[in-house]
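Local shape tokens:
==================
===
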Amino acid sequence: MAWAYLILAGVLEIIWAYFMKKSSGFSLLVPSAITIVTMIASFALLSISMKTLPLGTAYTIWTGIGAVGAFAVGVFVLGEAVNPMRLAAALFIVVGIVMMKLSTTA
């Protein structure tokens, strides 16, 4: 169950990052509120997953899901630039996530 909590925490991290961008520096109420609520939920689920999973594994996977997910949302939803170097960087993050998962027995 810890892995499910961790993945959901990562998805919530993507959501709060997107709404933080949409909040215009926390000057818009609804996106700001969504940011704060999803941020708290993401941290709570990360904390729950850390009861079972090692710190390094949980935190690396959580931030990796958030980083790659936010990159994808930036490209596909917000129309941000994509180039070979950015794609390679995202791929390296995914490889690191997979390696971290494979190296953890919990």
